């Protein structure tokens, strides 16, 4: 009995959510995914390993809203479903956390496999294709790089030239949007804004 129990605990690959769901990280079911859990988790995960200025962390939830805003500016006529996909592009991080790209490269393929499975399950849960078309994937990545440029220069201490070399050019958002999206929010506000934007996009 004790040996079986210890083996079970050692091999556990699921996480219990505040909603009560238990999500298997290696074989995720869309039925175990709730948007409230995603919003709550992402609002408490720090971008840039917390190495940003401001009174609060710059959360992954706030980052995803910035990415969707950049995509909206760059592709104003893009299908609303793909704006939702842009907002959910980092959703797996609500259970696996955010790691900087150089460290992801060190971890290699296993990390990517887990991340892709989680993202596919999240897409299915919210009515998106499990795998997004290459053209849209490239557009989301371009918006992600644009958001990273803004975060790097406004919050993470990078020079403009260094950010341009690493992430590409400034996406050119209106100044009012830059001020709002690049001021770190409280976790409560980030969670609330994420849920509100999700509701708007998913019901459009």
UniProtKB/TrEMBL annotation:
GO terms assigned for molecular function: hydrolase activity
Domain of life, source organism: Bacteria
Keywords, sorted A to Z: Hydrolase
Gene3D superfamilies: Hypothetical protein af1432
Listed name of the protein: Hydrolase
């Amino acid at each position: 009995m004790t040996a079986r129990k210890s083996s079970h605990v050692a091999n556990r690959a699921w996480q219990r959510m505040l909603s009560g769901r238990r999500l298997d990280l290696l074989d995720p079911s869309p039925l175990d995914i709730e948007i409230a859990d995603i919003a709550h988790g992402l609002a408490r995960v720090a971008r840039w390993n917390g190495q940003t200025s401001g009174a609060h962390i710059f959360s992954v939830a706030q980052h995803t809203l910035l990415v969707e805003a950049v995509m909206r500016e760059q592709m104003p006529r893009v299908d609303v479903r793909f704006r939702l996909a842009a907002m959910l592009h980092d959703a797996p991080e609500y259970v696996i956390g955010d790691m900087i790209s150089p460290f992801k490269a060190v971890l290699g393929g296993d990390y990517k496999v887990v991340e892709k499975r989680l993202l596919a399950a999240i897409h299915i849960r919210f009515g998106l294709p499990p795998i997004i078309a290459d053209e849209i994937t490239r557009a989301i990545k371009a918006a992600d790089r644009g958001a990273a440029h803004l975060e790097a220069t406004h919050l993470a201490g990078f020079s403009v030239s260094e950010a341009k070399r690493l992430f590409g050019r400034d996406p050119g958002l209106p100044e009012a949007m830059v001020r709002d999206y690049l001021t770190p929010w409280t976790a409560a506000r980030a969670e609330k804004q994420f849920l509100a934007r999700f509701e708007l996009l998913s019901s459009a």
